[in-house]
Design a protein that fits this description.
Layout (H helix, E strand, L loop, with lengths): L1 H25 L5 H5 L4 E3 L6 E5 L4 E3 L7 E6 L2 E9 L5 H13 L4 E11 L2 E12 L2 E12 L2 E9 L4 H14 L1 E2 L1
Antiparallel strand pairs: 1-2, 2-10, 3-4, 4-5, 5-9, 6-7, 7-8, 8-9
């Protein structure tokens, strides 16, 4: 009887270890439901306290100065991630700071702003029009705090790609999760 108990205990320990190893190896992989939605790539960088899914047709490119990650479907049609402050102000203060900085930029027009929920916490989003050379860009800039810093996810597109980039931006924000 004692021998059976030891065998069952050993199998339970091995099973738990195997399940834990499987979880560790697969925790950042996408599920079948996510693949069906076209979200088959996951943003996850060391030192960045969040992850999200994005459409596989968005190709990652080398980040520009001040940008940690960028993926897009064209040179001006992209989604990027930046750490914009090394502090985490309250949402009202964050909204005021961002509005002040955006209005100080030439060729930028704020079209809309709203407080939104990002990863189960309050954030702020701005929709702006700006110009880059001859192109007019529509951007959605989403700001939120995580681990004592303020982050921006920027989604920008020329008119021809606004629907596709907008849908991808909705998916990014909707799947964003803090680690």
């Amino acid at each position: 009887m004692r021998r059976w108990f030891l065998v069952v205990l050993l199998l339970a320990i091995l099973g738990g270890t195997g399940a834990g190893a499987y979880w560790l190896l697969n925790r950042d992989k996408t599920s079948a439901d996510e693949v069906q939605d076209g979200l088959v790539d996951r943003f996850a960088l060391d030192g960045v306290p969040f992850t999200f899914l994005y459409p596989d047709e968005f190709a990652t490119t080398d980040p520009q100065p001040g940008t940690l990650w960028i993926a897009g479907i064209g040179p001006s049609d992209a989604i990027d991630v930046r750490r914009v402050l090394t502090s985490a102000p309250e949402v009202a203060d964050l909204e005021r700071i961002v509005r002040k900085n955006l209005t100080a930029l030439p060729d930028v027009e704020i079209l809309d702003s709203a407080r939104i929920e990002v990863a189960e916490q309050q954030g702020v989003a701005f929709v702006i029009d700006s110009t880059a050379g001859e192109a007019t860009l529509r951007s959605r800039l989403v700001y939120f705090t995580a681990e004592g810093a303020t982050w921006q996810i920027g989604c920008q597109a020329q008119e021809s790609a606004q629907v596709q980039v907008g849908a991808a931006c909705d998916q990014v924000i909707g799947t964003l999760a803090l680690r």
